[in-house]
Design brief:
Layout (H helix, E strand, L loop, with lengths): L2 H9 L1 H35 L1 H5 L10 H37 L6
Helix pairs in contact: 2-4
Length: 106
């Protein structure tokens, strides 16, 4: 892209809104994962490791296994949500922005 196009894109209010939304979305999802992992999972291991060592209904499986799988499912789900947002809202905003500054988008 030429320097002129870059300057027009960066000066457009839609660009500022799009970057703000992407940044906010990234920080919110990062905070959810950090809280779930460090405060939840690692915090429980640090302060009450016996909780995860307890057997589920007297069987061989402990609570740590489903909690760990739950954390992985949360991560995969949040990734899916971000992809949905990026493919719908962010791509739509990008197309609108490029149309505003007169750049053809393939």
């Amino acid at each position: 892209m030429s320097e002129d196009i870059v300057q027009r894109v960066m000066a457009n209010p839609k660009y500022k809104e799009m970057t703000r939304m992407r940044s906010t979305c990234g920080w919110v999802f990062s905070a959810i994962i950090l809280v779930a992992y460090y405060v939840g999972f690692i915090g429980i291991i640090a302060f009450d490791k016996q909780l995860f060592a307890q057997s589920i209904s007297g069987g061989a499986m402990t609570w740590g296994i489903p909690v760990g799988f739950g954390l992985m499912i949360l991560i995969i789900a949040l990734t899916g949500v971000y992809i949905l947002i990026a493919n719908s809202k962010f791509d739509e905003m990008e197309r609108s922005l490029l149309n505003d500054v007169g750049v053809a988008h393939e």
